Amino acid sequence: MKKNFIRLIAVMLMIAFTFTAFAACKKNKDDDDDVTTNAPTESTAEPGKETEVPVTEVPVTEVPATEVPPTEEPVVDDVTALLGTWETEIDFSEAMTSSANADGQFGDLEFHDICFTVLVTFNEDGTYTAAADEETAAAAFEAMIDQMAPAIVTMMKVQLAEALGKEPDEVTDEEALELLGMFGVTSWDELIDMFREQMDPSEMTEEMESTGRYELRDGKIYMEDFFEMSEDESTWNRYELTANTLTLELPEDTSELDEDMIKVYPLVFHKVG
């Protein structure tokens, strides 16, 4: 696209230069004709001799230059424009909030800013690869644990209250940690670290890793196994594509899609390679 745009500018400059040069030559020619026509004629003939008749110049009809039409930028089809690597930042906050609160164990836990980058590469052979950026995924994992910490403490107090035959708000930190001490836990921070060790951040990135075939048709794109949203090959996402932006919208029929994954749409990708 950029090369075609530069080529278009070059052609336009060449046409402009040619027209300017032609106009300058024409003006100089017209000025010379005016001088020849309007200059006074002095007789150089001697008295008594026949005066020579000046030769009349025949005017030359100038043929106007043919204008060169501007070169139109060639249209790049979507299949070609899609090739390369695209990047997007996905916010999983709403999807994780819905999933965490599905069984009510975490109360009213609400996640926010749980985001990481996903890269998708479309190849000429009709296949694609998708992978999460490990650095941003690790940061998202830490943010998730930090935001879960209060809910983990509350959930643990509920379990301990049942064991003690009390209401959760009747269990003090001292009582809770005394019981947890049997498991080597002496503080709430140690408890959170225990949860952190039991969770593998690579699982988050593995869910974003996929490869398969893709196809464009009538303003829709099919990506095999993308996000593991559906095994049904009739699932086609609507898309909008420009030179630098790819927007994936939900398909018209979402009945076969994962409810939590629906919450991350639309996905807006930017071309990076």
Task: Describe the protein's topology.
Layout: H1 2-38, H2 78-82, E1 84-91, H3 93-100, E2 115-122, E3 127-132, H4 134-164, H5 173-180, H6 188-198, H7 202-208, E4 210-217, E5 220-223, E6 237-241, E7 245-248, H8 259-262, E8 267-271
Helix pairs in contact: 4-6
What percentage of the residues does DSSP assign to strands (E)? 15-25%
Q: How would you write the strand order of the largest sheet?
A: 1-2-3-4-5-6-7-8
Average pLDDT figure: 75
Strand segment count: 8
- Tell me roughly what share of residues is in helical segments: 40-55%
Radius of gyration: 39 Å
Largest sheet: 8 strands, antiparallel, barrel
**Terminal Cα span:** 14 Å
The number of helical elements comes to: 8
Strand pairing plus helix content: what structural class?
alpha+beta
Q: State the shape.
A: elongated
Number of individual domains? 2
Structure report:
This protein is α+β, with helices and mostly antiparallel strands and 273 residues long. It folds into 2 domains: 64 residues, no CATH class; 192 residues, no CATH class. The protein contains 8 helices and 8 strands; from the N terminus they run ααβαββααααββββαβ. It has an 8-stranded antiparallel barrel with strand order 1-2-3-4-5-6-7-8. Helix 4 packs across helix 6. The two termini are 14 Å apart. The N terminus is likely disordered.
Task: Give me a quick take on this structure.
With 273 residues, the protein is an alpha+beta fold.
